[in-house]
Design brief:
Elements (H helix, E strand, L loop, with lengths): L1 E5 L5 H10 L3 E5 L5 H6 L3 E3 L1 H7 L2 E4 L4 H9 L13 E4 L5 H12 L4 E4 L2 E2 L1 H7 L2 E6 L2 H12 L2 E8 L3 H29 L4 H8 L7 H12 L8 H18 L4 H15 L10 H8 L13
Parallel strand pairs: 1-2, 1-4, 2-3, 4-5, 5-6, 8-9
Antiparallel strand pairs: 7-8
Helix pairs in contact: 1-6, 4-5, 8-9, 8-10, 8-11, 8-12, 8-13, 11-12
Length: about 300
């Protein structure tokens, strides 16, 4: 099986590398700035029409629905050169409505589709331990599951096309609200005279402990904001969640509140920082200075 991989950013590049490590024949977009690094690791290079024409499976990892549509369905889109019987897997986090629209266009060309967004951020992309939430036909999922398992430790079939992105939106709501609560709690601890690092150690083993806390509390405590997942990308995901909520008639007040904090960060020039930067909002409200950056903190 020859796999075409499009979108070699923070997440996509290590994911493509893990496919190569697993022994897959991988072709990447030769126009990508990251292509030389992948070529040196054993990938082939091709322009998008050739990639679509020569690959059995095409995968995308791009920012949002418009980018997926442009890559696949635009004037020079990959879909036009894909063979009937080939498969497309979109691993981007997009609106489920967009996933279903793209799948409908591809079905008319005889191309199968899965939507398979991921959770875990850059560290798990590097480790190959991402969580995949997958929508699409069961038989297509079974055929592609080994490929996804080369990049992830959890691969769950959630239902028809669009169900994967619905699950991802639920994930992003929970992550955003957890980060917001964590930022608020650590700020309270410091203003109330407790050492927030000690508070973190005290509560991490109890019911409040979570993967979000383990990943983001150390970043908040040290002031490190190098992105594993950017503020602006989380705004995009929450916008998609709110759009989905409106379509489903489901109010999402906590999502609205978290989105407001992220928007403040964007407008304050922190849109490219890690979403753990939500603590900057709360520290600002409380009149606290940013913590000094330190590699020594846990």
């Amino acid at each position: 099986m020859r796999i075409g991989f499009i979108g070699l950013g923070i997440m996509g590049k290590p994911m493509a590398k893990n496919l190569l490590k697993a022994g897959y024949d991988v072709t990447v977009n030769s126009a990508s700035p990251a292509a030389p690094e992948l070529l040196s690791a054993g990938a082939r290079g091709a322009d998008l029409p050739e990639l679509g024409r020569t690959c059995d499976l095409v995968m995308t990892m791009v920012p949002n629905g418009p980018q997926v549509k442009a890559v696949m369905l635009g004037g020079t889109g990959v879909a036009a050169s894909m063979r009937p019987g080939s498969t497309f897997i979109d691993m981007s986090s997009i609106d489920p409505t967009d996933s279903r629209e793209i799948a409908g266009e591809l079905e008319a060309r005889g191309v199968e589709m899965l939507d398979a967004p991921v959770s875990g951020g850059e560290p798990k992309a590097v480790e190959g331990t991402l969580a995949f939430m997958v929508g699409g036909k069961a038989e297509v999922f079974r055929r592609c599951e080994p490929v996804l398992k080369a990049m992830g430790s959890s691969v769950v079939h959630c239902g028809a096309v669009g169900a994967g992105n619905t699950a991802k939106l639920a994930n992003q709501i929970i992550v955003a609200c957890n980060i917001q609560a964590l930022a608020e709690a650590l700020t309270l601890a410091e203003r109330a005279g407790a050492d927030p690092e000690v508070v973190f150690r005290a509560i991490r083993g109890g019911l409040a402990g979570s993967a979000v806390m383990e990943a983001k509390a150390p970043m908040m405590l040290s002031g490190r904001d190098q992105p594993g997942f950017k503020v602006d990308l989380h705004i995009k995901d929450l916008d998609n969640a709110l759009s989905c909520g409106r379509a489903a008639g489901t109010p999402l007040p906590m999502t609205e509140a978290a989105r407001g904090v992220l928007q403040w960060l964007h407008e304050s020039g922190f849109g490219q920082d890690d979403h753990s930067s939500m603590i900057k909002y709360y520290r600002g409200l409380a009149g606290l200075q940013p913590p000094e950056q330190s590699a020594e903190r846990p």
